[in-house]
Amino acid sequence: MILLDRVTKVYPVRGGGLRTLVRDLTAVIHRGDALAILGRNGAGKSTLMRMLAGVEYPTSGRIERRMSVSWPLAHGLGIQSSLSGADNTRFVARIYGMPVEPMVRFVAEFSELGPYLYMPVRTYSAGMMGRLTFGMSLAVDFDCYLIDEGASAGDVRFVNRAREALTAKLRNRTIIMVSHNVADVRSFCRTGAVLHGGTLTFFEDLDEAIATYESL
Which of 160, 195, 198, 210 fits as disulfide partner to 20, beta carbons 3.0 to 4.6 Å? Predict the structure, then answer.
């Protein structure tokens, strides 16, 4: 379970003033939920995902995690750019208590980065970074997976492989997905929530959530 208790996130804006991305949000995400978070660009969806992951903190309120939660898939959060992809993978393996070299082999095979896996991450393109972090995410068994446009990292062939691997991995797991791709939302999620004007509105009916999002 993930508990959000009166969570508010406020950012200063250029020229002075404050912008509220999330306001007084209280919600419970249960084990086994498959939730899509929908909203326009700039609504605060990715910020909310970073708070759920624990890499960014609310301005006020609290988030309590009673299950293991991934970082947002295909995002380079916490990656050290001076280290190689392989060394970053070893670091993550040690943090999560995974067998180190088997995880490196898995990421090498899945990402198809070849010799680039042993080069500094600062030399990677955005697509290569997505391949690395996606592979690292799939190598760790989380209770809850955060997916922020994560199924679209790389070329068409890799996207199809990633979708197949993700579908297999997410059986019986909790899913929280941010995506503008309605087809992905329908494939992975059963319920939805729309973030607009700092308010997150939940819908048990996914079609209703999608219709509300498309009307914004």
Answer: 198
